[in-house]
Amino acid sequence: MICFPNAKINLGLNIVGKRPDGYHDIETVFYPVPLKDALEIVAADNQSFTQTGICVEGLPENNLVMKALRLLKESHPIPFLDIHLLKAIPFGAGLGGGSADAAFMLKLLNDFCELGLSTEQLEEIAIKIGADCPFFIQNKPVFASGIGNVFTPVELSLKGYYLCLIKPDVSVSTAEAYSLVKPQKTSISLQKIVQKPLSEWKQYMTNDFEKSVFARHPLIGEIKEKLYQSGAIYASMSGSGSSVFGLFPEQTDLKDHFSDCFVWEGSLL
């Protein structure tokens, strides 16, 4: 059985408060995009996990796909499986690729093993893996608050627009990015901003990480500016980076403009 975990982008991201537990309260909008990994499981005599495609650092047993498997095995009978992950979503990019793989693994096991878990039960398990992991269970646009784990559905469709996604060979530490941001309340909620015409997003929508990340990694800021110069209606860094995306009214072909970067271009659903 096979599935295709997809990435997400952050439409705006505001750091609105510091919590007593050391985490930060945020506001953002998660939007699913059709850049996808491939994840396959088949029955086997022994447990195995292999990965191809983009190389992911770390031991195989620490992959979030395996964490999802272990969590389900704590309460449900799961047979030995051959698991293969074809990685196409860059990691460390603010695209949620690892969380998507884990969430889709939960859904895949639920179907393959006929566990009968509800959407709510799958989300309860997914939150143990990561704050944004439950998003990929329903995989629909949401306004995310709290630490990024409280979801409110958003009526939003970007169907017909084209996405150009750029990931430079730059790593951004999420912990470092948070340490450089001063939390502050927003004057207009992202819930209202995303209901405005896309042409107005540039005026109202912000990612609070950009100022400090662009200062330390100017290349990321330059990519955003090039996307606007190339005709993007809206462009932003996703999450804490290092990927940057642009939304365009027409199909793009910008690979030659970003020859030293990972580039994905396609229409949004």
Attribute tags:
269 residues, 4-stranded antiparallel β-sheet, 4-stranded mixed β-sheet, alpha+beta, globular, Alpha-Beta Plaits, 9 helices
CATH topology of the largest domain: Ribosomal Protein S5, domain 2
Helix-strand pattern, N to C? EEEEEHEHHHEEEHHHHHEEE
Poorly predicted ranges = none
- Count of helical stretches: 9
* Rg value: 19 Å
Q: pLDDT average, as an integer?
A: 94
Distance between the termini: 24 Å
- Supply the CATH class of the largest domain: Alpha Beta
Whole-number tally of structural domains:
2
Helix content: 25-40%
Q: Strand order, main sheet: write it out.
A: 1-4-6-5
Task: Give the overall form.
Answer: globular
Q: Characterize the largest beta sheet: strand count, sense, and whether it forms a barrel.
A: 4 strands, mixed
Classify the secondary structure makeup into a structural class: alpha+beta
- In terms of DSSP E residues, the strand content is 25-35%
Q: How many β-strands, per DSSP?
A: 12
CATH architecture of the largest domain: 2-Layer Sandwich
Characterize the structure shown.
The protein has helices at 64-73, 97-112, 119-126, 135-138, 174-179, 190-193, 201-204, 210-216, 218-229, and strands spanning 2-3, 6-18, 24-36, 38-43, 48-53, 81-87, 142-145, 150-153, 162-167, 234-237, 244-248, 262-267. The protein is α+β, with helices and mostly antiparallel strands. The protein has two domains: 2-153, 2-Layer Sandwich (Ribosomal Protein S5, domain 2), CATH 3.30.230.10; 162-267, GHMP kinase, C-terminal domain (Alpha-Beta Plaits, 2-Layer Sandwich). The strands form three sheets. A four-stranded mixed β-sheet has the order 1-4-6-5, covered by helices on one side. Strands 2-3-7-8 form a four-stranded antiparallel β-sheet, covered by helices on one side. A four-stranded antiparallel β-sheet has the order 10-11-9-12, with helices on one face.
